[in-house]
Recover the amino acids of this structure.
């Protein structure tokens, strides 16, 4: 019997392979799942953001794509299709239309309305900028700053309104006359240069208080006096450099539109209103409609809701003889 020490020693090594959970296959499956979920949510978002008409057009296209492509209609590339364009006439901004069918005017009307809206916004911004410039000029000018209380600026339904009002001891005109006082002349001529910086035309209106005119000439009343003062203001603006043709309207309103309604005889009711007209107001005046007979002050008095920022009435002054 052979000695056991002479037998060969055999060592068996068992190879243990790692389980599936220790490999990387699950990462691939998870990535596929995330991708599928992302695609699902994108699909749901597209379905939710698409109109019912577009969904019907897409559905009709997939039901019978050849018929839709040949006959046109929803889903073939017309204005209601999710895929715009196509058709025989590729220059149409509205997309494919059926033969003999006139193009829809909706887009053109929308474009015109949108253009008017944008022009109105740009013009309103120009008037606000002009108002800011005038306010800055009044603050920086020593000759105008002393009259700050008599210069009122606001935006109305017709444009930017600049009002120059009387004070008890500082009237703008000679008593009962249309003769401009030297400081009123200075104010008007300073303003004239700034008004040339915008293309808008202007309107002027003269106002008096309720005290009856007691002057000498028969038939001459506050109506004539207010109109003469408005026209005298126009001449001073022109002398100050206002471009020819900028003035579109000069009217006298006497005491019909008081500034201080609580005190018709207040000095504040004696004023000159200069309105930088917006395009809508300018077109209304040039069209010679019935609405043109009203001054901006009268319109605002009839419809105060249209006022963007009505000025606060100054402290009522004691009644005085007509200046």
């Amino acid at each position: 019997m052979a000695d056991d020490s002479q037998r060969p020693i055999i060592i068996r090594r068992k190879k243990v392979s790692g389980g599936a959970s220790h490999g990387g296959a699950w990462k691939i499956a998870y990535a596929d799942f995330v991708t599928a979920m992302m695609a699902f949510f994108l699909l749901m978002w597209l379905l939710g953001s698409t109109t019912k008409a577009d969904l019907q057009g897409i559905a009709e296209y997939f039901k019978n794509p050849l018929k839709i492509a040949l006959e046109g209609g929803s889903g073939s590339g017309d204005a209601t299709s999710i895929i715009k364009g196509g058709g025989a006439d590729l220059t149409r901004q509205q997309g494919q239309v059926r033969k003999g069918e006139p193009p829809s005017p909706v887009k053109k009307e929308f474009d015109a309305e949108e253009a008017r809206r944008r022009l109105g916004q740009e013009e309103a911004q120009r008037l606000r900028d002009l108002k800011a410039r005038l306010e800055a000029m009044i603050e920086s000018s020593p000759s105008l700053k002393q009259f700050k209380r008599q210069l009122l600026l606001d935006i109305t339904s017709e444009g930017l309104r600049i009002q120059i009002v009387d004070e008890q001891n500082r009237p703008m005109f000679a008593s009962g006359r249309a003769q401009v006082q030297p400081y009123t002349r200075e104010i008007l001529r300073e303003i004239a240069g700034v008004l040339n910086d915008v293309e808008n035309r202007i309107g002027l209106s003269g106002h008096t208080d309720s005290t009856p005119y007691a002057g000498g000439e028969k038939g001459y009343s506050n109506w004539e006096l207010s109109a003469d003062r408005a026209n005298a203001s126009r001449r001073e603006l022109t002398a100050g450099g206002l471009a020819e043709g900028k003035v579109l309207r000069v009217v006298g309103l006497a005491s019909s539109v008081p500034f201080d309604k609580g005190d018709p005889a207040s000095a504040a009711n004696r004023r000159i209103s200069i309105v930088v007209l917006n395009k809508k107001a300018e077109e209304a005046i040039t069209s010679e409609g019935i609405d043109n007979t009203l001054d901006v002050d009268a319109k605002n008095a009839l419809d105060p809701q249209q006022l963007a920022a009505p000025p606060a009435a100054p402290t009522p002054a004691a009644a005085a003889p007509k200046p």
